[in-house]
Write a structure and sequence with these properties.
TIM Barrel, globular, alpha/beta, 17% strand, binds flavin mononucleotide, three-stranded antiparallel β-sheet
Length: 339
């Protein structure tokens, strides 16, 4: 057993899940100033499996999914741990506290989490200022950084496009790719923005403002969409010249959790594996656009099946909580297929 599973995980798991998260983030924020120390402590073996997706050079195809580093405080630490890319966010135009605590729950026997954080983040101004500081001080990581944006809770759905635009504008020069997140279950009405009408309006609003050249722009989808709705999003993505898709966010299917332990929120981790794979397969049958696969990737087999199904890149979150940096060593052996 490695240091993480033997020492650190028992310590973290003795704490409330969100307290543990905050402790880890503070340590990694501090560690971001000493990346070589992190490399040493984590025993990072750098995986060179370079891959060009959407015109971006990825040193390896395994990234950190959105939601872990919502405010972009530990970018150099993620690089030092061996991730091939990082997705910061979800960032909203307005700073917001998220839902009342407790709002993050572990299910170790299922290797799963349920969260209803509700886009707690410092807001676009604070995050953009931090990212600008990293650029100007030469502390920007050498791996690609995606910026994931969502709707501010207090903004009505009818004004969503303008709210996404406010974040996109402020962040535009700061990230390698952008993600429109319309698939979190924890902001009321957000998933309704996956309708082709609402999503089309958001994409066009961002693209019209942007003109050319365009930044790589992805949409992150829910695993709970009916096949026809997913197909409609893929057609929209092609029509609106979106760069690609991220499949998937968390699920509302909690059938694997005993009712008395269940919590409201999005379920992630091992039980999401089949659903996320199925969403990827549906998308891949429709399009050759880049797809970042996410959801229940936890070992070489679950990573390999995503690449076989046509994923260009992978993201992980929950399995990293359960396995720590050793997860990245396991996944490093798997490679995207040439398409
Ligand atoms: C605690 C937690 C917070 C999350 N926050 C976000 C978020 O802010 N934005 C987002 O797009 N996805 C968020 N996600 C979803 C993950 O990015 C990912 O899509 C999902 O957890 C499935 O991957 P996994 O099974 O590897 O965890 C969050 C997930 C968790 C567990």
């Amino acid at each position: 057993m490695d240091v993480y599973t033997r020492l650190l995980r028992p310590l973290f798991f003795s704490l409330d899940a969100e307290e543990a998260h905050e402790l880890v983030m503070s340590a990694l924020e501090a560690g971001s100033r000493m990346p070589s120390l992190i490399r040493l402590m984590a025993g990072t073996t750098v995986t060179h499996a370079p891959r060009n997706v959407a015109g971006i050079e990825f040193p390896n195809p395994v990234g950190l999914a959105a939601g872990m580093d919502k405010n972009g405080v530990a970018l150099q630490a993620w690089e030092a741990l061996g991730f091939g890319f990082i997705e910061v966010g979800t960032i909203t135009a307005l700073a917001q506290p998220g839902n009342p605590k407790p709002r993050l729950f572990r299910y170790p026997d299922k290797q799963a989490l349920i969260n209803r954080l509700g886009f707690n983040n410092e807001g676009v101004e604070a995050v953009a200022t931090r990212l600008e500081g990293l650029h100007t001080s030469g502390r920007w990581p050498r791996i690609p950084v995606g910026l994931n944006i969502g709707k501010s809770k207090v903004i009505p759905a009818a004004e969503a496009a303008g709210d996404y635009l406010a974040s996109f504008k402020r962040l535009h020069g700061l990230g390698d790719y952008f993600v429109i997140n319309v698939s979190s279950p924890n902001t009321p009405g957000l998933r309704d923005l996956q309708s082709t009408e609402a999503l089309g309006r958001i994409i066009r609003t961002l693209r019209d403002w942007e003109g050319t050249p365009r930044r790589p722009l992805f949409v992150k989808v829910a695993p709970d969409l009916a096949e026809e709705d997913l197909v409609a999003i893929v057609q929209l993505a092609e029509a609106e010249q979106l760069t690609g898709l991220i499949a998937t966010n968390t699920t509302l299917d909690h059938s694997c959790i005993p009712p008395k332990l269940d919590q409201t929120g999005g379920l992630s981790g091992a039980p999401l594996r089949a659903r996320s794979l199925s969403a990827l397969e549906i998308i891949r049958r429709q399009t050759a656009l880049p797809v970042i696969a996410c959801g229940g990737v936890s070992d070489a087999e679950s990573a390999g099946e995503r690449f076989t199904a046509g994923a260009d890149l992978l993201q992980v979150y929950t399995a990293f909580i359960y396995q720590g940096p050793a997860l990245l060593r396991k996944l490093a052996q798997e490679k995207p297929q040439d398409r």
